[in-house]
Every structure is written in C-alpha cells, then in structure tokens.
Amino acid sequence: MYAIVEIAGKQYKVRQQERLYVPRLDHAAPDDRVTFDRVLLVSTDDGVTIGTPTVDGAAVSATVLGHVKADKVLVFKKKRRKRFKVKRGHRQPYTQIRIDAIDANGAAPAATEADDANADEANA
How far apart are CA 1 and CA 49, in angstroms? Predict the structure, then answer.
C-alpha cells in the first residue's frame, strides 16, 4: 500500500513505516503526530484511487522525529581585478518524519476502461 501526498507544496510517494525529509514544519515539535489530508493517489490491494485533485476521506498520519539542516551550500562571488569577493553559506532546514498509517477511507478504486465497457453492455 502506498500513497502520493502533498506536503508543503511538494509531492511524495510514501509507504507505511517509511522515513523521509520534508521542508521544515514549523508548527510541529518532535514526537508530535501530524496528519496530511492532501492525498492525491492511494494504492491498496483493491486497486488504485486517483483524486480529482484529492481523494475524499483519505489521510496520511506521521510522527515528527526531529528537525535537521541539510549540508551547507557555499555561494562564492568574485569580480576579478576589483578586490571584490563574497562567500556565503546556506543550510536548508528540514523535518524528518515517519509515516505511521495511510487511511484510505472513502477511497474507491478508479474505474477502468474494461469496467466502463462491462457497464455499457449490462445497460444495453
């Protein structure tokens, strides 16, 4: 079972017990449980449900493991013969989360073309 969920404007493919880094969630402290309801797709044993744009009733719950920073990215500017040099660094903040559960309530599998053809034959 997996889901595609939108977190902080980015889309992630998640599975249960998976750990991932997302852009920093300022409202969440370590050991807090967070729920993401912008689920774009849910895949279960019954089939795949694609949202328009989100799947109604589906949610992904996760636990915040901590806040970290990425490796430093150095930005160096120089203008030759002008004695101008600037060296700056940046560390992007991230939040590490663990996916606890994918709730697919209300998510019915998407209809396929074969299902549509069978329905048309039954109605005829």
Answer: 12
